[in-house]
Amino acid sequence: MADFEHLYSAGKAGFKDSEVTKAHEIIKPWNGEKVDGFGILGAPLSKPSISHSGAASAPETIRSAFSSYTTYAVEDNVDLKSTQLHDFGDVSMHVTDLIKSQQRIEDTFYDVFRSQPDMFPIIFGGDHSVSAPSIKAFSKVKGTVGVIQFDAHHDLRNLTDGGPSNGTPFRNLIESGTIKGEQLVQIGIRNFSNSREYRDYGHDHGVSIHTMEDVRKRSITDILRESVNALKEKVDVIYVSVDMDVLDQAFAPGCPAIGPGGMDSATLLEAAGYLGSEPSIGAIDIVEIDPTVDFRNMTSRIAAHVVLNFLKGRMT
Question: Is the pLDDT of residue 1 over 60?
């Protein structure tokens, strides 16, 4: 009689420890039913990037990075193995029409958010342009939205020079009336990565701007606690947008806009854990990873770790 005990699907063979649950095992394809928990959505769009970017391939790379980790957080004695991430898949993009691709994201996400009112969205970009349609869809379903943005850049570029690019999402949201400037908190803004004009635009519109100097001088949890408490007075729900280039280039070589002087990964993971513990947080996106220029998928691995730390915060 044939023995198939050691025969696995292609690409699935490998060492299996019966006493270890790997993080990718908690990701399951959505089965079409109502979700009361976490849902993954991919927005694989990077053609609107103002610099060369292969971030469209990041959603799948981030998913794969979960296999590098277990579900157990030893420092907190928390195990996520009973948590389930329902994977809704990726939005199909138009080949040539960027505006239509962004509209597809907004329309698709709106349909998902409306039909899944108890689902917590975890969104994998794509470049930062995907955050504008995502937040527009989110606000249509959830009401007044506040945004906490981790980023080296303001992303408040004007919409006339190049249209809705990865440098414009928050200008887009403000000028479309989706959010007011006072509903936006920026953390990690970095030297020699922005212009005075866009800093002034943010200040003039009431955006709360925390530079990397602020992050170095203050506890990240203090900044976040202050920011969350301020936003909760003004909004119904908070959306977190993590542009991975908030990290120093030493930690995130797979970002199109790498640079020195950024946040270290431990600080970002601490921030993710804290935000996970905040019930006012209703969605999170992770953007600006280009796997084609990454080294050993370091940047995608941090992205997966951000999600795991956020989930850990939800359980503690």
Answer: no
pLDDT tens, residue by residue, 197-238? 999 999 999 999 999 999 999 999 999 999 999 999 999 999
pLDDT for residue 11 is more than 80: no
The total domain count for the chain is: 1
In a domain, 151, yes or no: yes
Domain assignment of residue 304, given as a range: 23-315
Residue 235 lies in a domain: yes
For residues 106 and 141, the answer to whether their CB atoms sit within 8 Å is: no
Structure tokens at 309: 């730390």
Q: Which long-range contacts (CB under 8 A, 24 or more apart) does 101-106 make?
A: 101/45, 101/47, 102/45, 102/48, 102/129, 102/130, 102/132, 102/133, 102/164, 103/133, 105/43, 105/45, 105/130, 105/133, 105/134, 105/137, 106/133, 106/134, 106/136, 106/137
CATH of the domain at 274: 3.40.800.10
Mean pLDDT of 59-81: 97
Residues 6+ apart with CB under 8 A from 125: 43, 44, 45, 46, 55, 58, 59, 131, 285, 286, 287, 288, 289
Inside any domain, residue 172 = yes
Q: Which helix (H) or strand (E) holds 73?
A: strand 72-73
What are the strands, taking DSSP E only, across 94-249?
119-125, 145-150, 184-189, 208-211, 237-243
- Look at residue 199 and tell me if it is in a domain: yes
**pLDDT score recorded for residue 232:** 97
